Amino acid sequence: MREDKPLTASTLPSLTLVLASPRGFCAGVDRAIQIVERALEKHGSPVYVRHEIVHNRFVVESLEAKGAIFVKELDEVPDDRPVVFSAHGVPKSVPKAAKARDLYFLDATCPLVSKVHREVEHHQESGRTVVLIGHAGHPEVIGTMGQVPQGSVVLVETVEDVAKLSFSTDDHLAYATQTTLSVDEVTDIIAALKSRYPAIQGPKKEDICYATTNRQLAVKTLAAQVDRMIVIGAPNSSNSVRLVETAKLHGCQEARLYPRASEIEWGWLAGASRLGISAGASAPEVLVDELIDACRDRFTITVEEIRVIEENIHFNIPKSLAS
């Protein structure tokens, strides 16, 4: 009986890994994680965090190992411990409830999400109804709609939803967007809004965050140059899911989202010669390194990187934690 020879470095199939850059952590995610870590250093454990600080289980479990406790609502937080609000933002009712209990809280909301909050508040105070482009049930959408009285914001998810709106052209309207959406998708929805409501007001600067835009641009650039694409990110991470959609729209139909290398179906890569790799804004670089190492065990790899833009954005942590 013939015995198959084990694969050696010389007999492993070849695979070129093409890394998208920028990828992974954005400034808002980095700031949120720092806030939890600094709070643990300053106040000891446990520090409570309302909801996932960012949408990534690896990050959440790493912080749990350091003493963070993640809860769904404030009633799970003891009166004498700090609580951190997630990077996605929270409705105004949450800090109001924390103040009513005299809880010490730290707000890790991404400053770019806070910018959208202030826009929505300004429009509501100016007598405009806001059409929010976003995904129903996403924490960022819940937080944004919770900045103003109920009924002040109407959510649309698609161009078809715009066609169903019952406003007249005389109504005072404005629009805002969730920060982690597909640039292409939002462009179509905004165009539909402006077509139906020419007087609708928008933000002075687009709401989709720089990191979402840059990561999608990098994936667009890679998509036509690879025959497979892996995006490292959580299935509940909006910006990560949008990266997979972007790859498929721009030349790489064989694109998949995986939280970690251990979950990859390696048979899917059979016959591939060029694998594009990106990571959502809440996925740490260590998970990309893990994927590269896993590929190295199975292929003779060559690593390339395509950089489309340099990022130098930094957000400061609260002064109470800076010292």
Secondary structure: elements and pairs:
Layout: E1 14-21, H1 27-43, E2 47-50, H2 57-66, E3 68-71, E4 83-85, H3 93-100, E5 105-107, H4 111-125, E6 129-133, H5 139-145, E7 153-156, H6 159-163, E8 173-177, H7 183-196, H8 210-223, E9 228-232, H9 238-249, E10 255-258, E11 274-279, H10 285-298, E12 300-307, H11 319-322
Parallel strand pairs: 1-11, 1-12, 2-3, 2-4, 4-5, 6-7, 6-8, 9-10, 9-11
Task: Write a brief structural summary.
By secondary structure, the protein is of the alpha/beta class.
Give a written overview of the molecule:
The chain is of the alpha/beta class and 323 residues long. It has three domains: 14-25 and 210-307, 4-hydroxy-3-methylbut-2-enyl diphosphate reductase, catalytic domain (Cobalt-precorrin-4 Transmethylase, domain 1, 3-Layer(aba) Sandwich), CATH 3.40.1010; 27-110, 3-Layer(aba) Sandwich (Rossmann fold); 112-196, 3-Layer(aba) Sandwich (Cobalt-precorrin-4 Transmethylase, domain 1). The chain is built from eleven helices and twelve strands. The chain has helices spanning 27-43, 57-66, 93-100, 111-125, 139-145, 159-163, 183-196, 210-223, 238-249, 285-298, 319-322; strands at 14-21, 47-50, 68-71, 83-85, 105-107, 129-133, 153-156, 173-177, 228-232, 255-258, 274-279, 300-307. Strand 2 (47-50), helix 2 and strand 3 form a beta-alpha-beta unit. The longest helix has 17 residues, at 27-43. Residues 1-6 have low confidence and may be disordered.
